[in-house]
Design brief:
Blueprint lengths: L9 H7 L23 H4 L5 H24 L4 H27 L2 E4 L2 E4 L1 H19 L4 H6 L14
Antiparallel strand pairs: 1-2
Length: 159
């Protein structure tokens, strides 16, 4: 990742023009491999309606984003593991939002009213979600911040 302010998304720079004539980079495009959807029952075990709903939500996130990632960046084996993490994180955010809708942001604790623990958990999941979206270039500015690795000279005697 490049330091400094977030650049404009590549397509926005192309659309608006490039008055400074600086080189524009669409980012790195990795070779794709066919993504394999995980067994959500194995990954997210549990019984009951809530556990079933988490598996359904994870599967929905997979199907909503997978095709877009295959088309835009491609997925390789290493990215697929992080992508599954993205799907589980999205499902947990939905689970937490359902719990907050039912119980409210304040619940009865041992010593009176306290903040619902899901509030803290959701803040952590959302931070992780934003980080994973940026890793996959799924935010406009993140797509332009991915830079190609510098090719090393194989003939360099000092390596």
């Amino acid at each position: 990742m490049k330091p400094g302010p977030k650049p404009k998304p590549y397509l926005q720079s192309v659309r608006e023009g490039n008055p400074g004539h600086r080189s524009l980079s669409p980012g790195v495009v990795f070779p794709s491999t066919e993504p394999v959807e995980p067994d959500w029952w194995d990954l997210l075990p549990g019984e009951g309606e809530d556990a079933d709903r988490v598996r359904v939500d994870a599967r929905e996130v997979w199907h909503r984003l997978c095709l877009q990632l295959v088309r835009s960046t491609g997925l390789n084996a290493f990215q697929q593991d992080a992508f599954v993490d993205l799907c589980v994180t999205g499902a947990r955010i939905r689970q937490g939002e359902r719990a907050l809708s039912i119980d409210g942001p304040v619940v009865q604790g041992e010593r009176g009213l306290v903040r619902n623990p899901w509030v803290t958990v959701l803040n952590q999941y959302r931070a992780h979600w934003r980080q994973l979206l940026a890793e996959f270039g799924l935010t406009p500015s993140a797509a332009t911040r991915i830079v190609a690795p510098i090719e090393e000279d194989e003939d360099d005697p000092f390596d």
